[in-house]
Write a structure and sequence with these properties.
By secondary structure, the chain is an alpha/beta fold. The protein is built from 6 helices and 6 strands; from the N terminus they run βαβββαββαααα.
Length: 178
């Protein structure tokens, strides 16, 4: 198994955290892992993306031009990365996307994660809802290891949020239409 993916959006949407949690989860699943973030100097509002590779075998390079999966959370990211998805999966949140994906040679999933985070009354659950949807589509790591990865990614003072994050993961899984 080898999964090469990009997660892209605005700073503040949890893009880098989602990638870090996937990377930690992959390590706990005894996979080879790379996590390569890319972001501007803005803490919130600037563009951010992260490349994550999970593999059963050694990874030769963390630099990618094409991806098995793209998770895009804003229009700029969709415009930039839609053409770089191999025949694979593109996941996007409809919030902030004005021109939806047009490719017909890939599997496209629209996840209404922002709306679901409003229903949960917690906007910070957004990225975990998206991650849950991704893991329903491509179960590349176990949910147990995602929760353990959260403990690695979150400071100890935020461990009380892990049950909320688990709920958000399940909510995201329920949003995926087969």
């Amino acid at each position: 198994m080898k999964e090469e993916m990009i997660i892209a959006g605005f700073g503040g949407q949890g893009v880098l955290s989602m990638g870090k949690i996937l990377a930690y989860s992959g390590l706990m699943d005894d996979k080879e892992v790379t996590w390569m973030p890319s972001y501007g100097p803005e803490q919130r509002g600037g563009t951010a993306n992260v490349t994550v590779i999970l593999s059963d075998d050694r990874i030769s390079s963390p630099i990618l031009n094409m991806y098995d999966t793209a998770i895009v959370l804003n229009q700029q990211s969709l415009d930039r990365f839609e053409s770089q998805v191999k025949p694979g999966v593109l996941i996007y949140d409809s919030y902030g996307i004005h021109n939806p994906p047009t490719r017909t040679d890939i599997n496209v999933y629209c996840i209404n994660a922002m709306e679901a985070s409003f229903e949960m009354k917690n906007g910070k659950a957004f990225n975990m809802i998206v991650l849950g949807a991704y893991l329903k589509i491509k179960p590349v790591v176990s949910i147990e290891n995602v929760l353990a990865g959260l403990k690695k990614a979150l400071p100890e003072r935020h461990w009380n949020l892990i049950p909320l994050n688990e709920e958000a993961l399940k909510k995201g899984m329920s949003l995926v239409k087969e």
